[in-house]
Amino acid sequence: MERYNPRARADQYGSRLHREHSTIVANIVPWASIMLGSILPLFVITAAIPWMPPLGYLTMIAWRIVRPGLLPMWAGFPLGLFDDLFSGQPLGSGILLFSLTLIAFEVIEARFPWRSFAQDWFTTGLCIIVYILFAMIVSGAKITGTLLFVMVPQIVLAILLFPLLARFISHLDRFRLVRWRSVR
Amino acid sequence: MAPPASRRSSYSKRAQLSVFTGYVVAGIGAVLGAILLILSIWRPDLPGNLRASANDVTTPATSAAAEVRTGSKGFLESVQGYLRAGAQNAELKREMELARIRLAEADAVRLENRRLRALMNLQETDSAPVAVTRMVGSTSSSARRFGYIGAGSSDGVTIGMPVRTARGVVGRVLEVGLSNSRILLITDSQSVLPIRLSDERRNIVAFASGNGDGRLRVRLINLGINPLEPGDLFVTSGAGGYYQPSVAVALVEEVIDDGAIARVVSDPAASDFVAVMPIFQPEAVRAARTADDQRLGEDEGNSPDNPAGEVPAEPAPMPDGAE
Description:
heterodimer; A: two-stranded antiparallel sheet; two-stranded antiparallel ribbon; 6 helices; 4 strands; elongated; B: alpha+beta; 6-stranded antiparallel barrel; 4 helices; 12 strands; about 35% helix; disordered C terminus
């Protein structure tokens, strides 16, 4: 017997028969993943050097690149505030840096609408360097040659981690828009 | 990737306005952030409560993770132990015999010490820990070195209390939440810890602060020919009144012009339990703080991030229990 292709009514998020996106999941996943990224470095105990990449910040940039317009431009304020509660930075440094980053990405996007991932990675790399160095300056730590030297592994790790994280976030974006069974 | 068509600004007045509003709102957010940042650099103790209660929420998760972490570490260590059991056994027996002898000697010294103290009418200082808990987290992505422990004001922890492991000093309590506290690790560059050489005969006092790379920068108080040698052990001196004297702090690794670079004896990442100790001499701490307030003309000495408030510029006279 002739049959329809079973995928005929499906899109990349699953079958469309009796299935719909969940508004709740679609809206919560980006915010929740960024906040989780802010908390995760807390679990690592290191008394020696800060080597953990700023995961909350990186996750926010990854979402911004995967889905422009998903995070409103003011998202830097709440996300930065949340990050400040756990990062050990003085309150306000995250708010300022997260907000400025979102504004910068908006400007870059208006100026260069067509970009490849390599260009996005380059932009992100610059943002990471500025973020980590600025955060170090305002943190109140005594800035010495040694401190600058030990920040290098963190910067390198964060830049190298970003493509992987962006990949992970694009998978998370697929999950965000998965069609769940709904019968009406 | 090009932005979706709906996000390009158009000739529509309304679309242009909404883009403009987005910039304005985000700009206001950034400015608010800058103001908060300046405020919290100026008065570091202001947002403390907010942060402490936020960390109270995460403490169950972080302490569970700490349990798993120490558990798995113990498992790895026992596997390693099996691999080199024989040689280690023989070596441990030798060390044990030596340690018994040293213990007997130490007993004699302790007796003599007690007798001398009785002669001088000094009181034994109480050193029972306020709380024994786990190290549950640290700020692993910030340039500052803060740690979090799983005990807070409900366990009687207050700001300023020293925190130690079985091996030595870890840091000092900065902020207290209900069930967690933030501690300033001794490896932080803003931490200042009064120390002296464990060898009493050489009588060398110094300050230790974080070097930025996980080691301590030891600054001698009496300048002159640097008497330090690699391998020297520094212990707390008890000056300033916060720390019990004679708790191990660091081993000299590298001798430099005006002091040394020293390796911390107790790495908080390697220890499973930490003890919060009572402040050694609360009166001395209060006295130092008041003097500081008068000198500065404001209460900056109370701010927990300000190490100038915790150690007077001149080395304080040795507290009673130090020698």
